[in-house]
Give the backbone structure.
Amino acid sequence: MPRPITAPTKAITSRVADLIADILAKDPKANQKTFAQAIDAHPVVVSRWMKGQSSCTLDDVSRICSRYRVNPTWLIMGTGSRYLVSGTESEQVKLEMQVADMNIRLSALEIEAGKRKNGARKK
């Protein structure tokens, strides 16, 4: 089962919704259904992201970044440029490494959040 993102999900969800709106605005033939198909997601899930009703998983983020050449650092952390510039193979490797790095950072945040939550329960 894909791991949900538990880092600042509202900010990530907002960036995902803005990104989808940007992608759809640039392509008159595109819609939420074609976007969903492009990233192998269900159209209802994409609609819920657009409405801020649910969050993406790390797998969703990875597919969005790979398919649309989105900078994963921007999508997850909100820093850097929105899109990757070059279409070279080395950029794809760099993208995959960035996504892996973000997975590690998110895991660390999840662990820290769990420790804080457990610490609050003990008090």
User: Anything to note?
Assistant: The chain has a mean pLDDT of 82. The chain has six helices and no strands.
